[in-house]
Design brief:
Residues 268-391 are annotated as: Disordered. It is found in: Cell membrane; Membrane. Helices cover 56% and strands 4% of the residues. With 391 residues, it is mainly alpha-helical. It has a two-stranded antiparallel ribbon with strand order 1-2. The protein has a two-stranded antiparallel sheet with strand order 3-4. The chain is globular. The N and C termini lie far apart (117 Å).
Length: 391
């Protein structure tokens, strides 16, 4: 074990544990020990690592947004020191630039955190897969739970006939190895290009497309696929599976962020606002179908816009509610009367008992006045005594 393996040994141990546990889970449900289970174990490794890196990804998004916001100030600062190449001017520009970043709460290196965090994991997986044949042969000690028996199973597992530990440029590489390697390299390049294109073309404000940061993103959009093409031929099939899977995850994650949390002023934000407007319009159409009631003059009114009488409506007892012709207290407006206008009584209505008379309970009513009066709300008029309305 060299110094590089010594540094990576803790990460290699974690990688081996995740792969072995995933392999045991797949064999428990009936999959072959030396078949697709080890390929899926690498996919599970990607999923676990990317879930752990979600906080760093959120921080990367915030840093990228803040960098886009301060770009106009950075451009002004660059114009201010344009043509000044002396050390004092360059140092002053760097100090002012860092002050702008501090005020915005960002760091130009924060957007690189997910890539930097994945680099040790990538190399640890590379070392684990490269050591499978040595562990299986007994010339190297086990890595965590990856024993000699499990290493032999992993060494024998293949993807479309290509062993996981084989690579494109190996001396005895078969046609299956080269074909699978090319397919994975092309998939890596396409997913990387798509992710960078989404970030550059859809999630950048129009004013930021001409700044140096945008130009760097456009350059990476074409350079990274070439880097993958030239470097991928030297990596094992298992590492290419990891690389392709993590690129697919990045592409889907970036698509979700651009669609639901677009950068201010970008093309993605305009489309997001259009979707929200259509959604709000659909909700407004559905809310307009609420129940309506008819007011005075046949005007349709919403339920919460019914005319309200100036007098509080008293609750009716069950006995009175069952009688369709039950007498209505004087002064109660009809349900069809317009707001603020007293209802016209029926031809025959309940009149108050004369002053001095007694009700059915024998109590004297002295609250009336000659010719007119009102019945107490808790004392209904005497049954049987109905008078015609005075004209």
């Amino acid at each position: 074990m060299d110094w590089f393996d010594t540094i990576l040994s803790p990460i290699m141990w974690v990688v081996a544990w995740i792969m072995v546990l995933a392999h045991k889970a797949f064999t428990f449900i009936g999959m072959d020990e030396s078949g697709l289970s080890w390929v899926l174990s690498i996919v599970v490794l990607v999923i676990v690592i990317r879930i752990v890196l979600i906080p760093l990804f959120v921080r990367q998004i915030r840093a990228s947004r803040a960098m886009q916001i301060v770009q106009p100030e950075i451009q002004k600062l660059q114009k201010k020191y344009k043509g000044k190449t002396d050390p004092a001017s360059r140092q002053a520009m760097q100090q002012e630039m860092m002050a702008i970043y501090r005020e915005a709460g960002t760091n130009p290196f924060a957007s690189c955190l997910p890539i930097l965090a994945q680099s040790p994991i990538f190399f640890a997986l590379f070392r684990v897969l490269s050591s499978l044949d040595e562990i299986a042969a007994g010339t190297q000690s086990h890595i965590g739970p990856l024993t000699r028996e499990l290493a032999s199973q992993a060494e024998a597992s293949t993807l479309l006939g290509a062993p996981l530990s084989s690579w494109f440029l190996m001396p005895d590489a078969t046609a299956a190895v080269r074909i699978v390697a090319v397919i994975l390299i092309v998939a890596m390049s396409v997913t990387t290009f798509t992710t960078q294109r989404q970030l550059t073309m859809k999630n950048m404000p129009a004013a930021a497309l001409d700044n140096p940061m945008a130009r760097q993103q456009k350059m990476l959009m074409y350079i990274l696929p070439l880097v993958f093409a030239f470097s991928g031929v030297n990596f094992p099939i298992g590492v290419l599976i990891y690389w392709t899977t993590t690129n697919l995850w990045s592409m889907g994650q970036q698509f979700y962020v651009i669609r639901n949390m677009p950068a201010p002023g970008s093309e993605a934000e305009r489309k997001y606002q259009e979707r929200m407007a259509r959604k709000a319009a659909r909700k407004g159409t559905s809310s307009s179908s609420d129940a309506v009631t008819t007011g005075a003059g046949g005007t349709a009114l919403l339920e919460d816009e019914r005319p309200v009488s100036g007098q509080r409506q008293q609750p009716k007892s069950k006995a009175r509610a069952k009688k369709s012709g039950a007498p209505r207290p004087l002064g109660t407006p009809s349900s069809t009367a317009p707001d603020g206008v007293a209802s016209v009584p029926d031809d025959v209505t309940d009149a108050p008992p004369p002053v001095g008379t007694t009700d059915s309970s024998g109590r004297s009513d002295s609250s009336g006045s000659s010719g007119s009066g009102s019945v107490l709300e808790d004392e209904p008029p005497t049954p049987g005594k109905r008078t015609k309305r005075k004209r």
